Amino acid sequence: MARLPRLYFPGCAQHVIQRGNNREACFYDEADYKAYLSFLEEAAIKYQVAIHAFVLMTNHVHLLATPRDEQGISRLMQAQGRKYVQYFNFTHGRTGTLWEGRYKSTLVDSDSYLLTVYRYIELNPVRAGMVSHASEYPWSSYQLNALGKPIQLLTPHALYLQLGKTEEERQDAYRSLFRGRMPERELTAIREATNKAWVLGDDRFKTKIEAKTGRRAVPLQEKGDRFIFRLIG
């Protein structure tokens, strides 16, 4: 089946996943994590992309970001990825590719899913059994969003700012979102939308995106469990 064209929509948040080739490690030590975040910040400024949340896992990366124009995310990922590969190969005496083909992404309905995706991203180390709580993992945006530790890379989303009138109120409200486990239905919805290039949102949002982009936001079901994708127009 041919790959779906990417969905681009300026001003709309996107969940992005970038994996190491063959799921191999793309971070070996603390210097690697710091280098990745430094290159990401440079690219975000250059291509006018607001980074709201992130987690750097051993062999993959999650981002929640809002581009100012249609090509912002694509240019960000290309520039940052290329620069980090050059750094990583030189530093660790290796050659060849580091990333697993194209990054994966989905548009996120802010009203329905934005804070859920924040939580999904920052809970990755907990689900992986690396830590018992998100606060224990140093390479995620939880350190700022919940604990107030400075991370210059990040730009808070408008919905995050609505959590409280002060930084302390917002951080306290944000921490409360992490009580208990995420429902399996939310995990499944986020994973499927991102990995298969569907839109993550309610029916109203999906209809809006279809009208704006000319591409279906959800799969069409055909003959039981088989799915096909159809381009509009």
From TrEMBL:
Q: Which GO terms describe its biological process?
A: DNA transposition
The chain positions of domain Transposase IS200-like read 9-124
* Record protein name field: Transposase
Q: Which Gene3D superfamilies match?
A: Transposase IS200-like
Against InterPro entries, the record matches this protein to: Transposase_17, Transposase_17_sf
An example molecular function term from Gene Ontology annotations: DNA binding
The UniProt entry's coiled-coil ranges are none
Protein species of origin: Ectopseudomonas alcaliphila
Q: Which SUPFAM superfamilies match?
A: Transposase IS200-like
Source superkingdom: Bacteria
